[in-house]
Write a structure and sequence with these properties.
- It is a single chain.
- The chain has 493 residues and is mainly alpha-helical.
- Helices cover 70% and strands 1% of the residues.
- It has helices at 28-54, 66-82, 84-95, 97-117, 120-147, 157-185, 188-209, 229-248, 257-278, 284-307, 313-320, 339-358, 365-381, 396-424, 430-452, 461-480, 482-488; strands at 325-326, 329-330.
- A two-stranded antiparallel sheet has the order 1-2.
- The protein starts with 27 loop residues before the first helix and ends in a 5-residue tail after the last helix.
Amino acid sequence: MSTETPAVDEEPVDRTLDRGFFGQPRPLATVFGVEMWERFSFYGMQGILLIYLYYSASRGGLGVPQATAAAIVGAYGGGVYLSTILGAWVADRLLGPERVLFISAVVIMFGHISLALLPGFAGVIVGLILIAIGSGGLKANATSVVGTLYRADDPRRDAGFSLFYLGINLGAFFGPILTGLLQTTLGFHWGFGLAAVGMAAGLVQYAIGRKNLPKIAHRVANPLPRNRLPLVIGIAIAAVLVTLVCVFTGLVTAKNLALIVIGLIIVAAVAYFAVILSSHRIDATERSRVFAFIPLFIASVAFWSLYQQQFTVLTIYSDKKLDRNLFGWEMPVSWVQSINPIFIIILSGVFAAIWTKLGDRQPSTPVKFGLGTAIMGVAFLLFLPFAGGGPNSTPLLAIAGIILVFTIAELLLSPVGLSVATKLAPSAFTTQMVALFFLSVALGTALSGQLATLYDTKNEVPYFGILGAIAIAVGVLLLVIAKPVLRLMKGVR
């Protein structure tokens, strides 16, 4: 059963005949491109953000305590994915996914410009808020637009999402490499400026190609009645005012920001599931599929709470313990962030080919999620042989091997998660179901920042050992209940 309801004036199109982009529909190239450049700017900036916060002023940084800096990065990352709710709601109720995607790209570009040009904490606050809001709108809606290019039963669907994921990681590879070079040679603000240029490039190519996207990408799935618009505007203004009051009165600080974001995400996720499950706009089959999404959501949280520590704990680890010497030259800290995209670029095509070759015989989504979460836990246990070492004690090859395990886990869960969110989505909540998947990423990302405050380079065994064991346990549990979850998915695999 299709998860998309065609607009009344849309001519039926057999998209299975369009194989103009590596065997996929040609419009995939447009969304592939804007997401690639957005990831270039996002990961390029994030590759140097943490060290910008905790480096001393003499090194071009802001001198924030390391634990606080890690919590800020985690809270910001969680805020990015939390804002997918806003982007998804605006798409489903007001503007449609395609228009929200375009507007979000503009907002992101101005966020990076703010980081590059505004000095000190002013640039951090304005820049990160704009990037978080824009990225949330772009992420949920780019994925939703990709979903509109396929019928629900199209066997190319998972392969198409894997190819889309390749675009993400092309940007994620080059971003930290180039911003890191500028940061180490010219300064942090030059690196942030390059991120702005990258987002501008993505915006230009998308503006050129957006006219070729299908009409369904513009559809407003559940239009908001005009008489409710003033209420929505009032709520938005009130939310901004409450946030400002909390900040200026000291209720929200850099130290407690991650915990506040975690709480907001949990409330939002519970509310979203409740709203969708209680809606009269979904039928019994759609409701069963939403219930099936709950254990996948929990496993996803566990996975991302470890995986996203690439931007917190792994950055600190790379700065203080990793031997970054390459033939007498010390590579920038941010370059470690480009190792994962290399493996993704190499392996995403392999995974796409495997899923395509296996077809209906491939492992079900619950099995993929369970394996991905458990393997992520194994990756954390692989840090244990190097625990307790001093500066430059961990070989770069060892970290590359651990990140390879990160990557295998990621390819089992992340692109499959994007795909299953669109397949399990009720027709009235298409984009918002994708936002629910990103809420699991939001919660995991915010948790990664909060967990990073507990990381101690002098006492690493409990940290890596306990977190790794918990992730393995969650993954194994999902494998045990995979068949009942699959039955709830009502024909979706």
